[in-house]
Write a structure and sequence with these properties.
The chain is of the alpha/beta class. The chain has helices at residues 12-19, 45-49, 58-66, 77-87, 101-109, 122-125, 147-158, 195-198, 212-222, 229-239, 244-267, 287-296, 318-333; strands at 27-28, 72-74, 92-96, 113-117, 131-135, 163-167, 188-193, 206-209, 274-275, 279-283, 299-300, 302-305, 308-313. The longest helix is centred in the C-terminal third of the chain and has 24 residues, at 244-267.
Length: 338
């Protein structure tokens, strides 16, 4: 991995080289991305040949779908994670830990005073901070914060010119818990990911929900043509009102699959400590050994060292489910304790 880059799930080529297993023979459960991609609409040649234009309905469709007043399409929510700290004056920034590591890295890289904070310590720490950054549901723990709690924290921060940044990358299957409807208020930013729920991470599309003035500054900072023409067309089709029933059906199926994965792990004596529809989080003292044993069998999961834990995504078909269950059964029978 290049120096300065954080490690993420989905590094299948590196795993294939390291373990000598062909890419096609892996079961990749490391990313927390829906395993079955959303059907792609027909893409005209002009989507590839012309510069993308912002005069389409993508921003409005996203705002309507997420229940927000305003939305800015970006090239994956990662683009906003990296840019937003550059638009904020030097501040004391509390970042939830454990959490998606790019948040802390971006605020620290921009020169802010970073304070890692556990979920339990946020209340006590809030008055000493200018910015609070967290994910809801959290990645990798799956922990959820109530809307009432988040809005109360936002009110306290905004009263003194502060900011609450909520990453809702895994919110699509539990949209009733979103605070997107409040994102037009000053001092509140909500990020939404497109690729995870729709299983189209390669499209590189996400949305920033916030007050118009901040969205305008962010758009100016990112510059023109940040979202490709094909990504804009795919986003418009997936977020359109006439796709609402298909989105609801997909959410219900993913919720059922998430519950199935949690039940499988419990049945094997590996009860998860949290999770979402798209992954389960397993704290285990021998997480590294479990990760290694699965990798030797061509199954890639996400390993975390602090605390020792695994994030396990959803298999995409019956063969994948059977393969995961058999691999864990064999591993537990041959050495790694429950």
């Amino acid at each position: 991995m290049a120096e300065g880059l954080l490690e993420h799930g989905g590094r299948l080529k590196a795993a294939a080289r390291h373990y000598g297993i062909a890419e096609a023979d892996w079961l990749d459960l490391s990313t927390g991305i829906a395993p079955i991609p959303w059907p792609l609409p027909p893409l005209p040649e002009s989507a590839w040949a012309r510069l993308p234009e912002e005069g389409d309905a993508l921003a409005a469709l996203a705002a309507r779908c997420y229940g927000a007043q305003h939305a800015l399409p970006v090239a994956g929510s990662q683009a906003a994670i990296q840019a937003l700290p550059l638009l904020w004056p030097r501040a004391r920034v509390a970042v939830l830990t454990p959490c998606y590591a790019e948040h802390a890295a971006a605020w620290q890289r921009a020169g802010h005073a970073l304070q890692p904070v556990s979920a339990e310590a946020i209340e006590a720490q809030l008055e000493q901070q200018d910015v609070l950054v967290l994910a809801n549901p959290n990645n990798p723990t799956g922990m959820r914060f109530s809307a009432d709690q988040l809005l109360a924290w936002h009110a306290r921060l905004a009263a003194r010119g502060g900011l609450l940044l909520v990453d809702e990358a895994f919110m699509d299957c539990s949209a009733a818990q979103s605070i997107a409807a409040h994102a037009h208020q000053p001092g509140l930013v909500v990020l939404r990911s497109f690729g995870k729920f729709f299983g189209l991470a390669g499209v590189r599309l996400g949305f920033v929900l916030a007050e118009p003035a901040l969205l305008a500054r962010l758009q100016q900072h990112l510059g023109p043509w940040t979202v490709s023409g094909p990504a804009r067309l795919i986003g418009c089709a997936a977020l359109a009102p006439d796709a609402a029933a298909a989105r609801a059906s997909r959410a219900a199926q993913l919720e059922a699959d998430g519950a199935r994965l949690a039940a499988l792990l419990r049945r094997l004596g590996l009860p998860p400590c949290g999770g979402t529809a798209l992954f389960q989080w397993l704290r285990h003292p021998e997480a590294s050994a479990l990760h290694e044993a699965l990798a030797q069998r061509g199954i890639l999961v996400r390993l975390f060292s602090d605390p020792p834990s695994l994030r396990i995504g959803l298999p995409g078909d019956a063969a994948g489910w059977a393969r995961l269950e058999q691999a864990l059964t064999d591993i537990l029978q041959t050495g790694v304790r429950r």
